[in-house]
Amino acid sequence: MSTPLTSASSTRPIRDGATGSPLIELQDIHRTFVTGGGVEVHALRGVSLRIHTGEFVAIMGQSGSGKSTLMNILGCLDQPTSGSYLFDGRDIRSFDADGLAWLRREAFGFVFQSYNLLNSTTAQENVEIPAIYSGMPVAARKQRAAALLQSLGLGQRMAHRPSQLSGGAATACVDCTRIDERRPDNPR
Ligand SMILES: Nc1ncnc2c1ncn2[C@@H]1O[C@H](COP(=O)(O)OP(=O)(O)OP(=O)(O)O)[C@@H](O)[C@H]1O
Ligand SMILES: [Mg+2]
Fold this sequence. Notes:
It contains five helices and four strands; from the N terminus they run E-E-H-E-E-H-H-H-H. It is α+β, with helices and mostly antiparallel strands. The two termini are 15 Å apart. The site of magnesium ion (MG) has 3 residues, from helix 1.
């Protein structure tokens, strides 16, 4: 992370790792799901790890071993049942809903296992969503979404809902949202 970032709920910038302390630090993370029938599923049992700025880390394991569960916690989409998660030295539990939304927007890039397109909105509106969160004006984000979709040959599909798109077109639509989410020149 080369540019210091500032939280909407805190003006303290995210460090760039210069202090040598980990950017991400998990200590004894547990995540237990309770199913409808009251059965407990222990998806994570005491995961501890440290990730420093600039490190590339792969999390590997067999199907059902808890990779997605761990990634959801790392990306602040889910909370652990117990254990501590420090991001840039700050306990995740100290962030309110707005702070967590800011963190998800500014600090993480997500590539989900499924499409995760919103079926109640059109292809163009789906592509606009990251720009809405980054505060781009309406006209500019509509123009940009249209240009991205047209560049991938989806100009005739912009008003379609995701369920009306082929698998390849839906994938291209997701690609457009990701380009807009994390493009390095995004002037936020
Ligand atoms: N919401 C949930 N409710 C109940 N059990 C869950 C829930 N989410 C995950 N699990 C269970 O937790 C365990 C870990 O699931 P997870 O999706 O994290 O595995 P994974 O390593 O990502 O698997 P895959 O490689 O198949 O994607 C599995 O036993 C799964 O059935
Ligand atoms: Mg998974």
